[in-house]
Amino acid sequence: MNFLEERIRKDGLVKPGNVLKVDSFLNHQMDINLLDEIGREFKRRFGDKHVTKVMTIEASGIGIACFVAKEFGVPMLFAKKSKSINIAGEMYVAEVESFTHQNKNQVIVSKKFLSPDDHLLIIDDFLANGCALQGMISLAESAGATVEGLGIVIEKGFQIGGRVIRNLGYDLESLAIIDAMDAETGTITFREQ
Amino acid sequence: MNFLEERIRKDGLVKPGNVLKVDSFLNHQMDINLLDEIGREFKRRFGDKHVTKVMTIEASGIGIACFVAKEFGVPMLFAKKSKSINIAGEMYVAEVESFTHQNKNQVIVSKKFLSPDDHLLIIDDFLANGCALQGMISLAESAGATVEGLGIVIEKGFQIGGRVIRNLGYDLESLAIIDAMDAETGTITFREQ
To answer: For A121, phi and psi rounded to 5 degrees?
Structure first.
């Protein structure tokens, strides 16, 4: 078990409906030492890549992405979720359909900050169906930027997102992959990596 | 001029309607070295306070608050903006009326992470009319937590928020206070501190 799996075992709460609550240390209250360690681990895993920028999406990815960007010594850019259709021509827009909520959301980023010269490491806290990652990949494509890799803190391995992204040929690294959860017993089964 | 005022002069863009764009380094693309320096500066200014937790609000405050929390060696907690009325009893809720948009928004935080034992340093990127800060102060009050201080990166000194918070007796520190902006000339007048 790595440091993150240990922490999930210790402080994560399994709720009915395959919900994992990690809000005491990752996505509401944040343990800064853990974020720092996550940043170093992604540097270890993607250190051989040419990364010019770290990209994430608001809100809970921001803290993690900051510490990854610190390790790489590059800026961090976060995409915004937008409900409005009236976006001026100065933004790249990706329309993302949510599997879960069966609605469409827009993900936007300013054209000023993504270019064909950019080599991106895309970071997020959770990967389930992969809508957020697909939106960020689409934004990168629109700008002609290169996606060097994608780093996820917790992947729900029993949902489709990770398989889709890996099938597309992307270098996706998840620090913890959960293959099964049981709300009654509180058991979490991690995938051997 | 301090490091932040210098950076605003260099990379900030003044737009009509008293809008200051700092999206190249602070609230869309983020300069991590600057955030780190901001964290150290708030530690210098609030270092004599007993701080157990740093609190901010999503989304653009999160990165800054992470680096402040790192300096103090405490967790960071971010309040969420919520549009839904159906919040279970497990959240503190503050209803905040926006001066600008003339609508009401809910700001929420889990009761698990705020208690009378908490001494909070509240952090945000911008202060204009102060709605976000008022919401966070209200959340702290609901929990019986102590607000040790409030740290703002950029205060629009010509709007009412800063005066209100200081009149209420809070220790509010803004790294840069803008007294006037001129979109035609691009001039920014900082308040002497």
So the answer is: -110, 115
Calpha distance B150→A42 (Å, rounded) = 32
- Report the pLDDT value the prediction gives residue B86, as an integer from 0 to 100: 60
Q: Point out the residue among B36, B75, B112 whose CB comes nearest to the CB of A30.
A: B75
Name the A residues in 52-71 with CB < 8 Å from any B CB: 58-59, 62-63, 66-67, 69-70
**Is A24 an interface residue toward B (CB < 8 Å)?**
yes
- Amino acid in the structure at residue B192: E
Map residue B16 onto helix, strand or coil: coil
ipTM confidence score: 0.95
pLDDT tens for B50-74 read 999 999 999 999 999 999 999 999 9
Token pair for A37: 């360690």
Question: In A, which residues are within 8 Å of B62 by CB distance?
Answer: 59, 62-63, 66
CB contact under 8 A, A63 and B62: yes
At residue A176, the pLDDT reads: 98
Share of chain B above pLDDT 70, in %: 95
The single-letter code of the amino acid at A125 is: D
CA–CA dist A22, B74 (Å, integer) = 17
